[in-house]
Amino acid sequence: MKLFVGLDVSKATLDACFLSRADDSNVILLQKSVANSDTGARKIKEQILKFHEELEFTKIVIGMEATGQYSMHPSLFFSNDPDLQLLNAQTIVENPRVIHRFSKVWTEEKNDKLDAQLIAEFLSTGKYSDAQPREEKFVALLRLTRSRYQLIRQLTEAQQHYVENLYYKCNTLTTELDEENISTSVFSSTMIQLMAGDTDIADLRSMKVADLAAMLQSFGRGRFKDPIQLAKAIRKSVNDSYRLGKVAQDSIDINISVQMRVIRALQQEIKTVEKAIENIMETIDIAQSLLSIPGIGPVYAAGIIAEIGQIERFDHESKLAKYAGLYWPKHQSGQFQKENTAMSKSGNRYLRYYLVQAANSVRRYIPEYKDYYDKKYNEVPKTQHKRALVLTARKLVRLVFALLSNHQLYIARSEAIES
After folding, report:
1. pLDDT band for position 339 (cuts 50, 70, 90)
2. Backbone conformation region of residue 338, classed left if phi is above 0, alpha if psi is from -120 to 50, else beta
3. 353 falls in which pLDDT band (50, 70, 90)?
4. Which CATH superfamily is domain 2-133 in?
């Protein structure tokens, strides 16, 4: 006799259905609702132990849908409980789409009590995936890598606001720096101090080139090879830019200062999160497989590992690519086959982000990936970088899948041939 416990998880409650299976027939032993809390989970556990003492199950499976933050606590509770581990109880976290497809076969109705029963019925079929809850360190890693993702998005937005306000203050600055082929970024400490400091545009217009060059060298601690060229570019841009009235100029200066403080704060918080990620990565053995790839450091490796979880969930690299949303659905009708199809973005956006970022780094270190990127870049006249980078990320999926599946380290093709 087997016991299947279906849990419908919401923010406040855990609706449980206890279903026993013997001789190919299912019997509902009990349905109950408890709070989604440690106390509520313990009540379900006690009921499982009570039923097992009476019926002596040969197998116990506890299953729930993956509902993000709501399912995290109960999945960890049941998978890590020592009493349930002694019974070899298995905790499953299933893709909600799989449960949804199964439910359509049985009923169009929906409520929490019925959902718990459907999950238990699904578990009894034995067709559930072996999606075990993440270990605690992987949960911690997931929270950190997703926090970093959000911080990066906020940083990008703050930088866009800064550049927008900088345009209002000196609308030809970025163009002038590009035309003079000056590598100094508008986000460099020198440019920030110049544009967000005490020196206003009127002072820059009246300042001699030599004096401005000396100021730039002071701000940059003498690192500029040609401060005169930079000073001339800045002088030209401030002279060519539109003049604003004092009220408007003061408001722009305030906005620039605010955005720079936001940018610096976000950059510091990102460093803090990345340091915490690196500390956890030192405790994860499989991390070495990805860290062995030139161009992939602890942060990108952590983002990929945290989102993939157990690589055994995917029996082919194409399924991993589909999970990340790095695939192109086919459009075919009769004899017609559409040649150009848009990439699906229905997958895990966090995994897609870290794979794309990692691919952008890897192509700078591995000739094979550089050549592939260049080839795809030159195939089209528009959105060349974006398209080539996404396709390079799709190629990287194959390598990631192979290394994680085989627990191997990366070996360059030339080294593999020599060996």
Report:
1. very low
2. beta
3. very high
4. Ribonuclease H-like superfamily/Ribonuclease H (3.30.420.10)
